[in-house]
Amino acid sequence: MFNNLSDKLDKALHVLKGHGKITEVNVAETLKEVRRALLDADVNFKIAKEFTVRVKEKALGQNVLTTLNPGQLMVKLVKDELAELMGGETAGVNLTGTPTVILMAGLQGSGKTTFSGKLANYLKTKKNKQVLLVGADVYRPAAINQLQVVGEQIGIEVYAEVENKNPVEIAQNAIAHAKANGKNTVIIDTAGRLAIDEALMTEISNIHKAVNPQETLFVVDSMTGQDAVNTAKAFNDLLNFDGVVLTKLDGDTRGGAALTIKSVVNKPIKFIGTGEKMEAIDVFYPERMADRILGMGDVVSLVERAQEQYDEEEARKLQKKIAKDQFGFDDFLNQIQQIKKMGNMKDLVGMIPGAGKALKDVDIDDDAFKGIEAIIKSMTPLERTEPKVINASRKKRIAKGSGTSITEVNQLLKQFFQMSKMMKMMQGGGSRKMMQMMQG
Ligand code: GDP
Fold first, then answer.
1. Which residues are GTP-binding (predicted)?
2. Which atom of ligand 1 has the smallest separation from the CA of 117?
3. Parallel, antiparallel, or unpaired: how do β-strands 269-273 and 281-283 relate?
4. What is the rounded CA–CA span in Å between residue 291 and residue 195?
5. CA-to-CA distance for 231 and 329, rounded, in angstroms?
6. CA 421, 426, 431 angle in degrees (round to 5)?
7. Per-residue pLDDT of the chain in tens (440 residues, 90 and over written 9)
8. Facing residues of 245 across strands?
9. For a pocket test of ligand 1, which of 112, 276, 347 has the largest count of ligand atoms closer than 8 A to its C-beta?
10. Which residues line ligand 1 (CB under 6 A)?
11. How many angstroms separate the alpha carbon of residue 26 from the centre of ligand 1?
């Protein structure tokens, strides 16, 4: 996420390292680089300029008051300003309606349908809502199909009227259907066009007036940079929407949309999309995003994700197994599956402080575990529970069965034994033993 911007800001802020105190000269040098980094990220000139002016004022006002070194102080000032630019306080969604109606607006291809599914899934699993998805795109039958596929995947009912060409009517009927069927949340996915046109704007405006939604969310593809900002402005002038959803932040986006949209439309970014899967949705926290941009990681989100996957019962069972030396490859596979549920790998690695930068050129993808899974799946049940029996001929068979090499099988076995040993030590009051081991 925002690799390029992160890199450039990092370099800019390094200029100040090694200087004893903040002076007008080194602040000016640093801020020139910061401004250049923002412009390269597709932030518009005026916003980039105001940004650096504000940081400069704060920096020069604090030169003697602080015990931090200048580098750290500047990092903090830039971080606070970035967070402020992206929205300051975190904004939730209003779910108080009976039913709550959420209207999705945006251009075709922005990720509206995908996001409607993600949001439905999020509200169902995290907020315990009974959700109805509504397909109000009367021009593209494929769009309704797509929504139906999504709905099936996440177990959420999709309301559509294939014969009806009136989206306002469909939306109204859907709300009546929701009321009659005990659904307290209605998410309406509307039609989009490739560019803003009058017909699209009139239609969405009519739906908006007719259903009077609690939340109107504008969905925009973050890869489109300044275009995203212009589109947002047009939709906001018409709908006075409540919040923005930035999609495709997992891609190689420069960051301009994320950084400027709030200051142009004065509406908060509420959610981000970070992948094609239904789980790839995050509530947007400006502060945490600023941390990530400056390479400080996002430990809070990482821990939250881990907690979401944590099952106390399972953890207890696992502990017993480790204590009895019964931790096997099935448990290992299980652990991998848990990690995978936490989100896409690149995203997770980016949340570890420093790791995003260190590993930015390493190609981490969701297939990272594929080889390991294939190897484990080629093992017999005995080999999985008693990995010690895996001798040379078994290794050969496993490598062949999984389409890997004996070296890879050996590597996995080695990692597995190391991990088992470590887990056992950590359990048996062994932090002392661990320390001894690490010391030599
Ligand atoms: P719509 O026309 O606005 O409904 O857009 P879709 O939901 O059909 O999305 C367009 C394309 O973008 C699809 O191929 C989606 O899989 C993809 N997409 C949507 N959201 C994301 C995201 O957050 N990350 C990535 N990488 N792809 C996404």
1. 106-113, 189-193, 247-250
2. 7
3. antiparallel
4. 34
5. 51
6. 120
7. 787 888 888 888 877 766 666 677 888 888 998 999 999 888 888 999 999 999 988 887 775 455 456 777 788 888 899 999 998 777 788 998 889 999 999 999 999 999 999 999 999 999 999 999 999 988 888 889 999 999 999 999 999 998 899 999 999 999 999 999 999 999 999 988 877 788 888 999 999 999 999 999 999 998 887 888 889 999 999 999 999 999 998 877 778 888 899 989 999 999 999 999 999 999 999 988 888 888 766 666 777 777 777 777 777 887 788 777 788 898 888 887 777 777 777 777 777 766 666 666 666 666 767 888 899 999 999 999 999 999 999 999 999 999 999 999 999 999 888 878 877 776 655 445 545 554 44
8. 219, 271
9. 276
10. 106, 108-114, 192, 247-248, 250-251, 273-276, 280
11. 43
Which ipTM value was assigned to this complex? 0.99
Token duo for residue 73: 């102080």
The C-alpha angle 103, 109, 115, rounded to 5 degrees, equals: 45
Question: What is the Å distance from ligand 1's center to 275 Cα?
Answer: 8
